């Protein structure tokens, strides 16, 4: 994909009826001049959020008392105005080539800050990951004149920021990123969900204290071991509810609940439906399966 060099600005009229994300500017540049320098406290075009991704070469990003060399495959995220500076170092040997997006914080600031909390101000992002691909597409579309109204611009911004947030969730829940103990704990739950699994039993199986197991498991999967067990049991229950004629009590026993009433309560807390409603399609929609985050 050929990326057009330059900065493309957007100043669409505000729509009084619709709440839209606001794309302020997008571009691609290759800097060789040491005079390239931006100070987040001196700019008067805020409030803005800046995403800048290095394709090759390197630049410098300073935030409060921290200094980062931003090399190929790294981005920096900044809020304008804010206590940061970024610039091309005079000792650099090659051009600093980068993509950048600027947008207003309305509607998307929670997504942005959630990503920052997890990934930090200078994250490593693979060149083929969704946020980087989208940033390239936005710049290419801007150069081609395809971002021609505020609705298209809003869609670009929201999709980009959503993919940033989604990237952290999917990375977090990728088993390849889990420690061996956490993978063993998850597999133990998946293979033994029909038994009454206690946290003591699980912690002994993976050789971790209960405290460390709960803390590490939650950090890796986004769920406590108990919530993960409920999720596995609910998914198995949906298969049995739709694929067999077993009674609610029989399904409860098969997936590890001590009573049908407890199974109904757990199933409803996760799906919003009782097992009977799920089986019969008591709502306006008949679900074959429900998907959870």
Structure in words:
This protein is of the alpha+beta class and 293 residues long. The chain folds into two domains: 6-172, Regulatory protein AraC (Jelly Rolls); 178-280, Arc Repressor Mutant, subunit A (Orthogonal Bundle), CATH 1.10.10.60. It is built from ten helices and nine strands. It has helices at 109-119, 130-143, 150-172, 180-192, 199-206, 210-221, 225-243, 248-254, 260-271, 275-280; strands at residues 6-9, 23-31, 37-39, 48-56, 58-63, 66-71, 75-80, 84-87, 96-103. The strands form two sheets. The protein has a five-stranded antiparallel beta sheet with strand order 1-2-9-4-7. A four-stranded antiparallel beta sheet has the order 3-8-5-6, with no helix packed on it. A hairpin with a 2-residue loop joins strand 5 (58-63) and strand 6 (66-71). Helix 2 packs antiparallel against helix 3 (150-172). The chain is elongated. The model has no long low-confidence stretch (mean pLDDT 88).
Can you count the beta strands? 9
CATH architecture of the largest domain, by name, is Sandwich
Range of helix content: 40-55%
Q: Count of DSSP helices?
A: 10
Say what oligomer this is: single chain
- Gyration radius (Cα, Å) is 25 Å
Q: Which structural class do you get from the secondary structure elements?
A: alpha+beta
Widest beta sheet: strand line-up: 1-2-9-4-7
State the separation between the terminal residues, measured CA to CA.
Answer: 33 Å
Please describe the structure with a list of short key phrases separated by commas or semicolons:
9 strands; 2 domains; 4-stranded antiparallel sheet; 293 residues; Jelly Rolls; 5-stranded antiparallel sheet; alpha+beta; Arc Repressor Mutant, subunit A
